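Lab meeting notes turned into a lecture example. A postdoc, R.K., suggested we walk through two folding results consecutively so the class can see how the record format repeats. The first protein's sequence and structure tokens come next.
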Amino acid sequence: MFPFVLLRRRTPRAQQVDRRARWGILLVAISFTALWQYQFWQTSLPVWRLALAIVFLVLADVLSWSAMRVLGKQWRVDAGLNAEHELVMRGPYRIVRHPIYTSVLCLLWGTAFILLPVPLILLATIPALIGTEIRVRIEDGLLASRFGKQFDQYKRSVSAYFPFVR
């Protein structure tokens, strides 16, 4: 979460905001809350799960820092567009359209592989994916309304938040 706290800049007021995206945030928060409901301290952690957790957590860190740096003043909690908003297609945005959401999912899975048995990881993932999908569709709609054909072409060539999955 450090990139979001440390790189937070004063952003100009958005011209267009869609607060429905907050439902997506709520669903992702429910997923993170579910992680802490299992009595993880009563089980041992196999090495493969720890290794997988480290991979996901490092990936989450790299994606969040790099995406925040590229976005700069355009980043905001609510789905919105600034007057001088640009369509960012560089850095991690060359691989996925929403790398911050990818990083949140990686953070969820990295933490989950440390705390939960695999069936519960899948269960915790469901509201996170639904929440992410809500946010992606709302943000894609905003970007399409501003950038039109340029965004449509970008959307066709770059997957939303899972690399190479359309």
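The second example is placed directly after the first for contrast:
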Amino acid sequence: MEIFHAGTISKDGDILANGGRVLNICATGKTVTEAQRRAYQAVDRIQWPEGFCRRDIGWQAVEREKGGSP
């Protein structure tokens, strides 16, 4: 798993959000569904009271994997 940050600044030894999409969590798995689950598990471990996480990332790939559309 890898966590990347962008749109951040360093201030007094802390890394702070500076606007936009700040974190990108990347995970691998034997399936797309597993990779998505692992990435969201990592997101859930991040303590960021004012942070916002989209929960719809990867849904199209998961649906294709399950044999549905799109």
